[in-house]
Amino acid sequence: MSQNSKANTIPRKALVTGGATGIGWAICQRFAASGILCVIADINEKAAQERARTLGPGHVAIGVDLSDLVQAAGLVARAAQVMGGLDIVVNNAGITDTSGRRVGEIPIGDFERLVAVNLSSVDVICQASQEVLQAGGVVVNLASGAAYRPLALRGAYSATKAAILALTKTYNTLAEKLGQRVCAVAPGYVRTELVESLIANGRLDAEAAAATVPLGRLGDPDDIARAVAFLASPEGGPLAGECLSVDGGTITSGGRPL
Ligand code: NAD
Question: Is the keyword Ribonucleoprotein assigned to this protein (predicted)?
């Protein structure tokens, strides 16, 4: 057996934050289907453990609250220790303000939590990933169409996602020297718990939202998972520091998120 074919038999290992539900869970399922072992890191530790059991042997769960930057900073090393190394890190966990308040009306504590989970934790995880990932390692960050066209009543969320685009490019510049890549994916509306909660409390009209998508439908979590899996694969190699919009053409066509 050549050294290369031996190396190819070693499963790659991925850390997915917020992997217990929605897009993160779809990413874990797609990774697992291609033989990648997952660390599902989530504030909902019980759900993460159930998901890891569902994926099977070799997949593990870690409970973490990413609003606590000490926990976030230690997560990558913790995951690498459990798995014996890491090849892929997906910064997927994210929260939004579903109250419909304008950005200046959000209490400072809620604002700070949003920034901590959506942005600061991504920063410390990108930083830690550069130390832990080998050459060939990939980080994929979840941005949003809101990064390009801010949402009127979710200004703070939009600001964190716009910052993810800059952070992705900045960390990619540093990662290049290490033979690593940092990319991002910007989903349009995807029917996950986050979006279902907006629909349930009347903050989003599902039909009106679908009408803004040239493709004619809201996204499915696996639409996003396929893009993340591609970016994280060796085939995604030429893409570095870039953000893929996976939104059925919404942003490209000038469509406006609601
Ligand atoms: P979701 O709410 O369905 O799932 C988020 C996951 O993150 C959950 O498992 C939750 O427990 C976990 N999480 C929340 N706070 C956490 C914390 N403090 N520490 C650790 N884990 C935490 O969300 P989703 O819709 O699957 O979104 C995933 C990502 O995609 C987010 O970054 C979101 O901003 C982005 N996004 C989603 C949409 C969409 O329409 N759903 C659109 C654009 C971007």
Answer: no
